[in-house]
Amino acid sequence: MLESLITSKTRQRILVKFFMNVATNGYLRGLAEELNESTNAIRKELNNLLEAGFLEKEASQNKIIYRANKKHPLFSIIQKIIRHHIGIEAMVDMILQRMGEVEKVVIIGDYANGIDSGRIEVILVGQQLHASYIDKLGVKIENEIKRKVEFFLMEEYEDDKGLVIYENHKPKE
User: Fold this and answer.
1) Any idea where the domains of the chain sit in the sequence?
2) Which residue from 15, 2, 13 is spatially nearest to 37, judged by alpha carbons?
3) Are strands 119-126 and 102-108 parallel, antiparallel or unpaired?
4) CA gap 94, 152 in Å, rounded
5) Which residue has the higher pLDDT, 31 or 86?
6) Are 53 and 71 within 8 A, CB to CB?
7) Cα(19)–Cα(26) distance, rounded to whole angstroms?
8) Are residues 102 and 77 in contact, defined by beta-carbon separation less than 8 angstroms?
9) How many percent of the chain have pLDDT more than 90?
């Protein structure tokens, strides 16, 4: 879907980087190395996204740091498109429908850092999760989103690392 809307692979990867996790930021050379692209290609796309208002920049020491512009009127829409492109929305829906009482879903690893590596690491937090069903569900999710998914089941997760994509705010009894 994203490929038909945005034909530049470099622009797609930059949007994934900054809109998958809004806490993510980057600078020109770091992005060029991370995305394995030339600095000129990265600079061109950063400038286009800045001009459109999708990114903002800030000078820090002798680097220009880029991040998603959360104040842009289309920010939430772009973020939803990116998460749909990655398959996060479909994955969360399938997890919540079939995994028992899920309290929290946290993305860790590459995707939490905005890197579309093809392998999504997911922590599922909850009591009495259907652990025996996770293998079957994992295969269904992988077929749906076309990415490898690795699940980690936990009863508690209080670490601030990762990207929380679902949290049930029901009070505990």
Assistant:
1) 2-76, 87-167
2) 13
3) antiparallel
4) 16
5) 31
6) no
7) 12
8) no
9) 42
Residue type for position 34: E
User: CA separation (Å) from 96 to 9, 111, 130, 147?
Assistant: 32, 20, 11, 19
Encode pLDDT of 22-59 as tens digits.
889 999 999 999 999 999 999 999 999 999 999 999 99
CATH 3.30.460.10, domain 87-167, yes or no: yes
The backbone region for 106, taken as left when phi is positive above 0, alpha when psi lies in -120 to 50, beta otherwise, is beta
Fold of 2-76: Arc Repressor Mutant, subunit A (1.10.10)
DSSP state of 54: S
Q: 172 is written with which tokens? A: 């505990």
Angle between helices 28-35 and 39-51 (to 10 degrees): 120
Q: In what order do the strands lie in the sheet with 102-108?
A: 148-154, 119-126, 102-108, 163-167
pTM: 0.76
